[in-house]
Automatic annotation (TrEMBL):
One of its GO terms (cellular component) is nucleolus. It is found in: Nucleus, Nucleolus. Its EC number is 3.6.4.13. Signal peptide: none annotated. Its main location: nucleus. It comes from the Eukaryota. This is ATP-dependent RNA helicase. Residues 49-77 form the DEAD-box RNA helicase Q domain. Residues 519-532, 684-696 have a biased composition (Basic and acidic residues).
Amino acid sequence: MASANMGRKSKPAPKAKTDLKSLKRKRVVDEHEQLVHAIAELDVKAEIKDFSDLPISATTAKGLDASHFKTLTDIQSKAVPLALKGKDILGAAKTGSGKTLAFLVPVLENLYRQKWTELDGLGALIISPTRELAIQIFEVLRKIGRYHTFSAGLVIGGRSLQEERERMGRMNILVCTPGRMLQHLDQTAAFEVDNLQMLVLDEADRIMDMGFQTSVDAIVEHLPKERQTMLFSATQTKKVSDLARLSLRDPEYVSVHEAASSATPATLQQHYLITPLPEKLNTLFGFIRANLKAKIIVFLSSGKQVRFVYESFRHLQPGIPLLHLHGRQKQTARLDITSRFSASKNSCIFATDVVARGLDFPAVDWVIQLDCPEDADTYIHRVGRTARYERVGRAVLFLDPTEEEGMLKRLEQKKVPIQKINVRQNKQQDIKNQLQNMCFQDPELKYLGQKAFTSYAKSLFLQKDKEIFKVNDVDLEGFAASMGLPGAPRIKFMKGDDAKKIKNAPRAALDSSDDDSEAEKKPKKKEEVRTKYDRMFERRNQDVLSGHYSKMIAEDEVEKADGEGDADEDDDFLSVKRVLPVGDDESSEDDEEGGVAALGPAAKIIPGISTEPIVVDSKRKEKMLQSKKKLASLKGKGTKMVFDDEGNAHQLYELEDEEAFRQRGTAQEQRAKFLEEEAARVREADLDDKQLAKEKKREKKEKRKAREAALEAGEDDEVPALQDVDDDYDPMALLASLPMADEEERPVKKQKKWFEDDEEVEEETRKRKSRVIETVDEPETLEDLEALAAGLLN
Ligand SMILES: Nc1ncnc2c1ncn2[C@@H]1O[C@H](COP(=O)(O)OP(=O)(O)OP(=O)(O)O)[C@@H](O)[C@H]1O
């Protein structure tokens, strides 16, 4: 008989099982009591070095340990004890100094001590300004919270609202972006936030900035006043108005690097170089060619700039994988690009400020600021993408001679140590001719270049800090030529807004795609002098190229006539078509691109000569409306007809034959019958829905029970990951059941390389020679098949 049980674990007797259970429960209760006591006793001034010295639960400690976090960073050792005691916190520390854990550990612990369960609803809300950063925070939460049983979710848009809606109500911790969160608070009925204990704003100064003002204020309106609030940023402000807006109670200002001699990490080497605008692309290309083995981020001021530089450099094949990222890309593409850049050893990413804050790309060697940042804070966040957590890093700021004095002054005021360097003449590369050829042969690229140029020039004009940005003094003509463009697109600048406001304004508002109806176009002004390029572009590529070119010209003409923004609806910042009403200037969270507005006739730039855009706009709209009305009155309305099987036309709704109608009973009877039938149908559908919901609930319950049973039996590590069950990445789930990012087996995409190094080629040849068995790739193309066929015949 004994052999029958061999190899099987003997089940504990029921009595022993209950004892084990109650013992476990007692242990948990004791731990809670001890923690509450320890926190009350905790001396916030004591130097705490290791996480193991903190009064935190074994569950969090285990998660931290499994994630290899042992010692606390400065901001963590100062902020965590205060936060554990429930204090409101204003946390400021340099980039890459570990602020994320400084708020995540207290979030987990404070809920744990309160024995928070699914039934208690939302306990903590963490707001991030961008989707990428929210995802990153969520990943860290998943890592350190992996042994907790809280449910946690990521609410950043980009997936179905309904899908999120169904699970929002059961989440304990949410990481979100402001816009999407507000949407749920306003529209998701089952979503309750009355119990909320903690609100965290990462990159708080950015979130409190005008771009998110309306959303954040509205979110805070929904939240209970009695809560703990924590704000973190490398460029934290103590603006009283902000504190009042968030109802902070007697906040503790935790600034660990305030007394430091610099606002940036000590391991960061910072340089600037003077390169006149028309030389900028040459210098950048030379830099990239000289650093093919490095990991580089290049910051530009707008998505259009990013696209143009990426596309043109791609054609030039510098010999390093190139990537690009801006707020206009699809969410999946953005995610793919960020993870590819994270995983790469050497690559160069061209990006807007969408990646300037918070993102923790591993081992970035260089941060290049090709376009001057709008202010010193943006500079600090951009360079903070390198030299993170004790690593070294280097940053170079490209400045036009006109920007040098103003920018250096701003950086000095913010305690940013920066040194001038010069470009080695032998490293300079002239790519102007190549770009010119490329633009000539590829109309798409030329069109992109024109938009990038316009966007850049306008961003200069709209920048607030006129001590740095002097649009009238820079060589825009030379810049256009350096991009390979046939002359500088004509731009007309107008007063009335600033770049920051436009950058932060919601996309929807800026996209006010007023259809510039043909009827509205003013007659073309008198024949202009045609340049060599005009003639050239008309001759070549008649179909495609001249299409783009005339579009550009046509847009110019419309705007010349109207005296206002770009008609291109893709052109987010080229449409300063209306001044946003006060309080209506919130931003879509990922619309971080800088950018600019308004095209027009004069090659010469004379700021301040035009009228206020809002006046022009309303007049134009009025005119457009009038002409549309006129058109409508002339046209008359169309009538929709339907055809029967014999091809006879009928009105869409025809009155039924009265006799036939009467035969079916009185109108009242028919209405009652209709209602009855519909009610029965709804009841039936309802039953089906309920049944489905019940089944789902039952399945969930079973899964949860299984997991709890496994936990109780001390088999934490064997808990089946949610992925095994749902077969899908789930941004809303129990922390304990979420798979770890580094455990996920992503199919590693092979990096595209423009050139191979000699060493690599040699290595590959050597490997091939040493192979005994030759493997043949599956034929993919026609050429492959032909080659294969030829081989077989031989
Ligand atoms: N206690 C710690 N021990 C070891 N590494 C840590 C610790 N805390 C944080 N780190 C690591 O330091 C890096 C930077 O952390 P984090 O992203 O939190 O910085 P940050 O201060 O929020 O930066 P930013 O201001 O740019 O948002 C991360 O890679 C993180 O894993």
